[in-house]
């Protein structure tokens, strides 16, 4: 893969946020000696280097009642070396969709000889393991993991720790294009290859997010992303004193991080999870508040934003969904201790304009789960170990 080197890096305390880097070539050919200066502006990441990172990266697919053909398509796009975890919150009652997912996955893994795990978010063993390890923040009153993609993602971080992976990457199950999924994973691996710090995150920028109505229109920014990015950039600008538009990925559902970093961040529920990760990085390592971890402060926290070639085509859930996403994301910015008056006013103006709040109202305080680093991973592993093995989709190893 050939990819632009970061041309500009914004520094915010110990955080290094790289400007968007574009993918130039999906396949950059055989490994060979490079001409002098060939890689000044463009980095060639060799296949083997990519594979080394893929092996160490758990790819997590959160899913809830998605079409089976979509889920299978997504899985088929994930490079063979990556272990897969499907964390499902699909219905089990009327129609047992989870059972159908299991059958599909078993068949797929049988023929492709690959490793994948499938766990239901409401699995009582998972909930018990979380409770026993001391992380009961995402459990509901029935003692099971709460609904929500974010809750599934947090559980997946613990499972990646049990599997002793170094990286975790997320990919939604409602993606129509297996080729795009393939590219996301290559971008994750290339980002980690370029990282100089073990505390790194890679967020995907879509080249286009087409709208299909009559014909097809290759749109670049969704409304929610545009507004959330603007407010996120305002928070950085006011804090550093220099106006910036560096953040282009506040809502990047497609993103990956080193587990070292994943352990240090706090997680908001539902659609606020992605912006909250950035807020949590800025709070923990921006230098305004006390540093959240000495080692990470020393190495720095690196954020990569990589723009893919493939357009992002996924299930369109209409405009009601838009407000659902905007409010919680902006609430994480609004309620951050880093957020000053100017950015707060910006957030309120945007929310009023979108009719997401009334005049005089404030966005609700987000529900935030603390960093996973303090849990007792031995206890978690003990409680889930065998059960995880039995959740493997490759039955006849
Ligand atoms: P959008 O793409 O950001 O508009 O959000 P989606 O509604 O497409 O959700 C993103 C992904 O999360 C999809 O793959 C959903 O199937 C999945 N998802 C949604 N809710 C849940 C949930 O409660 N648990 C899990 N595990 N996945 C979920
Ligand atoms: Co989607």
Structural notes for this entry:
The protein is of the alpha/beta class and 397 residues long. It has a single domain (2-390), classed as Spore Coat Polysaccharide Biosynthesis Protein SpsA, Chain A (Alpha-Beta Complex), CATH 3.90.550.10. The protein has 13 helices and 16 strands. The strands form 3 sheets. Strands 1, 2, 3, 4, 5, 6, 7, 8, 9, 10, 13 and 15 form a 12-stranded mixed sheet that branches. Strands 11-12 form a two-stranded antiparallel sheet. Helix 1 (47-55) packs across helix 6, helix 2 packs parallel to helix 6 (178-194) and helix 7 (223-240) packs antiparallel against helix 12 (341-353). The radius of gyration is 21 Å and the shape is globular. The relative contact order is 0.17. The mean pLDDT is 94. Residues 172, 174, 314-315 line the site of cobalt (II) ion.
Question: SSE layout and pairings?
Answer:
Blueprint: E1 2-4, E2 9-12, E3 15-18, E4 21-25, E5 42-44, H1 47-55, E6 57-63, H2 68-77, E7 84-88, H3 97-112, E8 116-120, H4 124-132, H5 149-162, E9 167-170, H6 178-194, E10 200-205, E11 211-213, E12 215-217, H7 223-240, E13 255-258, H8 259-262, E14 267-268, H9 273-285, H10 294-299, E15 301-307, H11 320-334, H12 341-353, E16 368-369, H13 377-390
Parallel strand pairs: 3-15, 4-15, 6-7, 6-9, 7-8, 10-15
Antiparallel strand pairs: 1-4, 1-5, 2-3, 9-13, 10-13, 11-12, 14-16
Helix pairs in contact: 1-6, 2-6, 4-13, 5-13, 7-11, 7-12, 9-11, 11-12
Cobalt (II) ion (CO) binds next to loops.
